[in-house]
Amino acid sequence: MSKTQEGIISLVYGAYYNVRPLPDLQPELRAKLRGRLRLQSRHKKGSRPPGEDPLKERHLIMVGDRVRFLREHNNAIIEEVLERRNAVQRATQYEIQSLGANLDRAVLVASLSTPPLRTGFIDRFLVSCHAGKVQPVLLFTKPDLVDELDEEDLHAVLSEYNRFYPVYCANLIASEAVSSIEWTAEFPGLSELTALLDRGVSLLCGQSGTGKSTLLNRLLNSSAQKIGDISSSTGKGKHTTTNAALFIREDSAHDCLLIDTPGVREWGVQHLSREEILA
After folding, report:
1. Across 183-211, average pLDDT
2. 8 A C-beta contact, residue 128 and residue 90
3. Rounded to 5 degrees, what are φ and ψ at 173?
4. What's the gap between Cα 55 and its chain centre?
5. What do you get for the CA distance between the two ends of the chain, in Å?
6. Distance of CA 86 to the CA centre of its chain
7. pTM of the predicted protein model
8. CA 9 to chain centre
9. Residue 242's pLDDT band (cuts 50, 70, 90)
10. What does the alpha-carbon distance between residue 104 and residue 23 come to, in Å, rounded to a whole number?
11. pLDDT at 179
12. Do 250 and 25 form a contact (C-beta atoms < 8 A)?
Protein backbone atom coordinates (compact mmCIF):
# COMPACT_ATOMS: atom_id res chain seq x y z
CA MET A 1 0.00 0.00 0.00
CA SER A 2 1.36 3.41 -0.95
CA LYS A 3 2.54 5.72 1.81
CA THR A 4 0.87 9.05 2.37
CA GLN A 5 2.66 12.37 1.92
CA GLU A 6 2.14 15.64 3.73
CA GLY A 7 1.08 18.64 1.69
CA ILE A 8 -0.45 22.10 1.89
CA ILE A 9 -3.76 23.08 0.27
CA SER A 10 -3.15 25.79 -2.37
CA LEU A 11 -6.64 26.16 -3.89
CA VAL A 12 -10.22 25.17 -3.09
CA TYR A 13 -12.86 24.96 -5.81
CA GLY A 14 -16.09 23.06 -5.30
CA ALA A 15 -15.43 19.45 -4.36
CA TYR A 16 -11.82 19.62 -5.59
CA TYR A 17 -8.58 21.01 -4.22
CA ASN A 18 -5.05 21.75 -5.31
CA VAL A 19 -2.34 20.42 -3.01
CA ARG A 20 1.41 21.08 -3.00
CA PRO A 21 3.64 18.32 -1.55
CA LEU A 22 5.96 19.28 1.30
CA PRO A 23 8.76 20.21 1.56
CA ASP A 24 9.45 21.04 -2.11
CA LEU A 25 5.91 22.27 -2.96
CA GLN A 26 6.21 20.76 -6.44
CA PRO A 27 4.33 19.69 -8.45
CA GLU A 28 0.89 21.11 -7.69
CA LEU A 29 -1.62 18.25 -7.77
CA ARG A 30 -5.37 18.17 -8.23
CA ALA A 31 -6.96 16.40 -5.26
CA LYS A 32 -10.26 15.24 -3.83
CA LEU A 33 -11.33 14.02 -0.41
CA ARG A 34 -11.56 10.37 0.53
CA GLY A 35 -15.26 9.51 0.87
CA ARG A 36 -15.22 9.12 4.63
CA LEU A 37 -13.81 12.65 5.03
CA ARG A 38 -16.63 14.12 2.99
CA LEU A 39 -19.08 12.60 5.44
CA GLN A 40 -17.35 13.99 8.51
CA SER A 41 -18.53 17.24 10.03
CA ARG A 42 -15.83 19.57 11.31
CA HIS A 43 -18.10 22.59 11.22
CA LYS A 44 -17.35 25.08 13.94
CA LYS A 45 -20.40 26.40 15.73
CA GLY A 46 -20.72 30.15 15.84
CA SER A 47 -22.54 32.25 18.40
CA ARG A 48 -26.24 32.45 17.55
CA PRO A 49 -29.33 33.58 19.46
CA PRO A 50 -31.28 30.77 21.20
CA GLY A 51 -33.44 28.80 18.80
CA GLU A 52 -31.33 29.54 15.71
CA ASP A 53 -29.18 26.97 13.95
CA PRO A 54 -25.39 27.29 14.48
CA LEU A 55 -23.32 28.66 11.64
CA LYS A 56 -21.37 26.17 9.56
CA GLU A 57 -18.18 26.52 7.57
CA ARG A 58 -18.57 26.79 3.80
CA HIS A 59 -15.69 24.36 3.20
CA LEU A 60 -14.27 21.49 5.24
CA ILE A 61 -10.75 22.48 4.15
CA MET A 62 -9.24 25.93 3.58
CA VAL A 63 -6.14 27.17 1.78
CA GLY A 64 -3.11 26.71 4.02
CA ASP A 65 -4.45 23.57 5.66
CA ARG A 66 -1.94 20.75 6.06
CA VAL A 67 -3.13 17.35 4.81
CA ARG A 68 -1.89 13.83 4.24
CA PHE A 69 -2.60 12.43 0.79
CA LEU A 70 -2.00 9.48 -1.48
CA ARG A 71 -0.59 10.32 -4.87
CA GLU A 72 -2.20 8.70 -7.91
CA HIS A 73 -0.22 9.72 -11.01
CA ASN A 74 -0.87 13.48 -11.36
CA ASN A 75 -3.78 13.44 -8.91
CA ALA A 76 -4.12 12.98 -5.15
CA ILE A 77 -6.58 11.56 -2.64
CA ILE A 78 -6.70 13.45 0.67
CA GLU A 79 -6.69 10.91 3.50
CA GLU A 80 -6.38 13.17 6.54
CA VAL A 81 -6.71 16.84 7.46
CA LEU A 82 -4.12 17.77 10.09
CA GLU A 83 -4.93 19.99 13.06
CA ARG A 84 -4.78 23.71 12.33
CA ARG A 85 -2.35 25.92 14.20
CA ASN A 86 -4.56 28.97 13.57
CA ALA A 87 -6.95 30.43 11.00
CA VAL A 88 -8.64 33.63 9.82
CA GLN A 89 -12.38 33.45 9.22
CA ARG A 90 -15.21 35.87 8.51
CA ALA A 91 -18.93 35.23 8.51
CA THR A 92 -22.25 36.15 7.01
CA GLN A 93 -25.54 35.53 8.78
CA TYR A 94 -25.65 32.16 7.02
CA GLU A 95 -22.16 30.66 7.12
CA ILE A 96 -18.51 30.92 8.15
CA GLN A 97 -16.08 31.67 5.33
CA SER A 98 -12.57 30.35 5.93
CA LEU A 99 -9.81 32.44 4.34
CA GLY A 100 -6.52 30.86 5.38
CA ALA A 101 -4.94 28.50 7.92
CA ASN A 102 -1.55 27.90 9.56
CA LEU A 103 -0.49 31.51 9.08
CA ASP A 104 2.47 33.49 10.32
CA ARG A 105 0.52 36.72 9.81
CA ALA A 106 -2.53 38.24 8.12
CA VAL A 107 -2.15 41.52 6.22
CA LEU A 108 -5.17 43.78 5.79
CA VAL A 109 -4.80 46.12 2.80
CA ALA A 110 -6.85 49.28 3.48
CA SER A 111 -7.18 52.32 1.23
CA LEU A 112 -6.80 55.86 2.59
CA SER A 113 -8.84 57.28 -0.27
CA THR A 114 -10.89 55.25 -2.78
CA PRO A 115 -12.57 53.20 -1.45
CA PRO A 116 -12.64 55.39 1.67
CA LEU A 117 -11.12 54.19 4.93
CA ARG A 118 -13.53 52.26 7.17
CA THR A 119 -12.26 51.76 10.71
CA GLY A 120 -15.18 49.44 11.56
CA PHE A 121 -14.03 47.06 8.83
CA ILE A 122 -10.47 47.18 10.19
CA ASP A 123 -11.63 46.55 13.75
CA ARG A 124 -13.67 43.49 12.73
CA PHE A 125 -10.63 42.13 10.88
CA LEU A 126 -8.53 42.61 14.02
CA VAL A 127 -11.13 40.85 16.17
CA SER A 128 -11.14 37.88 13.76
CA CYS A 129 -7.35 37.68 13.85
CA HIS A 130 -7.28 37.65 17.64
CA ALA A 131 -10.00 35.01 17.77
CA GLY A 132 -8.09 32.88 15.25
CA LYS A 133 -4.72 33.38 17.00
CA VAL A 134 -3.16 35.10 13.97
CA GLN A 135 -0.80 38.11 14.06
CA PRO A 136 -2.46 41.06 12.23
CA VAL A 137 -0.58 43.56 10.07
CA LEU A 138 -2.09 46.73 8.56
CA LEU A 139 -1.08 48.19 5.19
CA PHE A 140 -2.59 51.56 4.21
CA THR A 141 -2.48 52.37 0.49
CA LYS A 142 -3.13 55.33 -1.84
CA PRO A 143 -1.62 58.08 0.36
CA ASP A 144 -1.05 60.08 -2.84
CA LEU A 145 -4.84 60.46 -3.28
CA VAL A 146 -5.60 61.80 0.21
CA ASP A 147 -7.43 65.14 0.35
CA GLU A 148 -5.61 67.80 2.38
CA LEU A 149 -8.72 68.24 4.54
CA ASP A 150 -8.52 64.60 5.65
CA GLU A 151 -4.79 64.45 6.42
CA GLU A 152 -4.98 65.28 10.12
CA ASP A 153 -7.78 62.79 10.85
CA LEU A 154 -6.09 59.98 8.90
CA HIS A 155 -2.79 60.59 10.63
CA ALA A 156 -4.53 60.21 13.98
CA VAL A 157 -6.14 56.93 12.89
CA LEU A 158 -2.87 55.38 11.68
CA SER A 159 -1.02 56.55 14.79
CA GLU A 160 -3.65 54.99 17.05
CA TYR A 161 -3.49 51.61 15.29
CA ASN A 162 0.30 51.78 15.36
CA ARG A 163 0.20 51.78 19.16
CA PHE A 164 -0.85 48.12 19.04
CA TYR A 165 -0.12 46.69 15.58
CA PRO A 166 2.50 46.85 12.82
CA VAL A 167 1.36 49.64 10.44
CA TYR A 168 2.75 50.18 6.94
CA CYS A 169 1.90 52.87 4.40
CA ALA A 170 2.71 52.68 0.67
CA ASN A 171 1.76 53.95 -2.76
CA LEU A 172 1.64 50.66 -4.68
CA ILE A 173 1.27 52.20 -8.14
CA ALA A 174 4.38 54.39 -8.13
CA SER A 175 7.72 52.90 -9.16
CA GLU A 176 8.96 54.11 -5.79
CA ALA A 177 6.98 54.49 -2.60
CA VAL A 178 6.21 58.21 -2.78
CA SER A 179 3.57 60.41 -1.19
CA SER A 180 2.88 64.11 -0.93
CA ILE A 181 1.97 63.63 2.74
CA GLU A 182 5.00 64.19 4.96
CA TRP A 183 3.75 62.13 7.90
CA THR A 184 3.61 58.91 5.87
CA ALA A 185 7.39 58.74 6.35
CA GLU A 186 6.67 57.86 9.99
CA PHE A 187 5.50 54.41 8.88
CA PRO A 188 7.49 51.67 7.12
CA GLY A 189 6.80 51.28 3.40
CA LEU A 190 6.72 48.59 0.74
CA SER A 191 10.36 47.53 1.03
CA GLU A 192 10.02 46.94 4.78
CA LEU A 193 6.75 45.06 4.29
CA THR A 194 8.35 42.90 1.59
CA ALA A 195 11.12 41.97 4.01
CA LEU A 196 8.55 41.03 6.67
CA LEU A 197 6.57 38.84 4.28
CA ASP A 198 9.69 37.07 3.02
CA ARG A 199 9.42 34.52 5.81
CA GLY A 200 6.55 32.13 6.35
CA VAL A 201 2.92 32.12 5.22
CA SER A 202 1.11 35.45 4.87
CA LEU A 203 -2.59 36.01 4.20
CA LEU A 204 -3.54 39.07 2.11
CA CYS A 205 -7.08 40.35 2.53
CA GLY A 206 -9.15 43.51 2.35
CA GLN A 207 -11.93 45.35 0.58
CA SER A 208 -12.13 45.24 -3.20
CA GLY A 209 -10.19 48.06 -4.84
CA THR A 210 -7.70 48.72 -2.05
CA GLY A 211 -4.70 47.41 -4.02
CA LYS A 212 -4.43 43.87 -2.68
CA SER A 213 -3.89 42.25 -6.08
CA THR A 214 -1.46 45.04 -7.02
CA LEU A 215 0.52 44.26 -3.87
CA LEU A 216 0.60 40.55 -4.70
CA ASN A 217 1.81 41.23 -8.23
CA ARG A 218 4.58 43.49 -6.94
CA LEU A 219 5.65 40.90 -4.39
CA LEU A 220 5.72 38.18 -7.05
CA ASN A 221 7.16 40.40 -9.81
CA SER A 222 4.40 39.09 -12.07
CA SER A 223 0.78 39.50 -13.11
CA ALA A 224 -0.50 36.62 -11.02
CA GLN A 225 -3.80 38.34 -10.26
CA LYS A 226 -6.03 40.60 -12.35
CA ILE A 227 -6.37 44.21 -11.22
CA GLY A 228 -9.76 45.90 -11.19
CA ASP A 229 -11.02 49.47 -11.17
CA ILE A 230 -13.17 51.38 -8.70
CA SER A 231 -16.87 51.41 -9.61
CA SER A 232 -17.95 54.90 -10.63
CA SER A 233 -21.47 54.28 -9.30
CA THR A 234 -20.63 52.94 -5.84
CA GLY A 235 -17.10 54.18 -5.20
CA LYS A 236 -16.22 50.64 -4.17
CA GLY A 237 -13.83 48.18 -5.70
CA LYS A 238 -14.81 45.55 -8.23
CA HIS A 239 -14.03 41.92 -7.38
CA THR A 240 -11.10 40.48 -9.37
CA THR A 241 -9.96 37.56 -7.18
CA THR A 242 -12.63 34.84 -7.03
CA ASN A 243 -11.00 32.14 -4.85
CA ALA A 244 -8.38 32.14 -2.12
CA ALA A 245 -5.14 30.84 -3.63
CA LEU A 246 -1.61 30.17 -2.42
CA PHE A 247 1.36 31.59 -4.34
CA ILE A 248 5.08 30.90 -4.02
CA ARG A 249 7.51 33.80 -4.18
CA GLU A 250 10.19 32.21 -6.32
CA ASP A 251 12.97 34.70 -5.51
CA SER A 252 12.50 34.31 -1.75
CA ALA A 253 15.41 32.98 0.26
CA HIS A 254 13.12 31.86 3.08
CA ASP A 255 10.23 29.93 1.45
CA CYS A 256 7.80 32.85 1.24
CA LEU A 257 4.18 31.75 0.69
CA LEU A 258 1.36 34.24 0.03
CA ILE A 259 -2.36 33.50 0.22
CA ASP A 260 -4.48 35.93 -1.79
CA THR A 261 -8.20 36.14 -0.97
CA PRO A 262 -11.24 37.60 -2.74
CA GLY A 263 -11.93 41.23 -1.98
CA VAL A 264 -14.94 41.77 0.28
CA ARG A 265 -17.23 44.72 0.96
CA GLU A 266 -18.13 43.65 4.50
CA TRP A 267 -16.33 41.72 7.23
CA GLY A 268 -18.84 39.91 9.40
CA VAL A 269 -18.08 38.49 12.85
CA GLN A 270 -21.34 36.61 13.41
CA HIS A 271 -19.29 33.46 14.13
CA LEU A 272 -17.83 35.03 17.28
CA SER A 273 -19.46 35.35 20.67
CA ARG A 274 -19.95 38.66 22.46
CA GLU A 275 -17.30 37.56 24.95
CA GLU A 276 -14.76 36.87 22.17
CA ILE A 277 -15.39 40.26 20.59
CA LEU A 278 -15.08 42.15 23.87
CA ALA A 279 -11.90 40.25 24.76
Report:
1. 94
2. yes
3. -85, -35
4. 21
5. 49
6. 13
7. 0.86
8. 14
9. low
10. 17
11. 65
12. no
